[in-house]
Amino acid sequence: MTGADPGPVRVLLADDHHLVRTGFRVILEVEPDIQVVGEAADGEQAVALTRATAPDVVLMDVEMPRMDGLTATREITGGLTGAAAPAVLILTTFDRDDYLFAALRAGASGFLLKNGTPEALVDAVRVLARGDGLLAPEPTRRVIATFARSGGPPVGAGTGAKLADLTPREREVLVLVARGASNAEIAATLTLGEATVKTHVSRMLAKLGLRDRVQAVIFAYEQGVIQPGG
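Structure for LuxR family transcriptional regulator, as requested:
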């Protein structure tokens, strides 16, 4: 007996430019497994519509009136928990480390530039909906390494997150996740099935009190499990 169909991925668009939102809607709604459930023209609307529509993924612009996208992301990721908490994908025209750094601190699960392809956007939505994290590849390792060395509470603080809680296999999985390996690559490296790897990743995240793979990467850097360039 097969499991119930989870239904389409529900997406909320947040951007102060109507034409940009329309373009994103056209790209996403062509896909049979994606549904746009709302549009917000500023950060305050994004927060309110997130609570009202319960999306799986929020596409968030950075620079918006009334409330910027980073503040809105912080409100969304900090104010909702469990199944009600969507993944936030930051989309911006600016390839700036400070934006990516701030997006990670705000709790975003992904970061892409608006000059990417429609295929990259669709893939990013699906990746985040699965509970994975996604970052534009160019600045990722440099900024995550800086992020991990920065001040402020570490990722996982307040959850009792301890490396000692992990089994040896879960720690191996954490290291590979921190190096950017996909489930398929982890499976090949450890000679495991992808379903088994997915289970290990889920258990590792749960034990460490982390939301997704992006937080796992940051946690690994903060705890010295992996070093920049390692």
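The domain at 153-222 is CATH 1.10.10.10 (Arc Repressor Mutant, subunit A).
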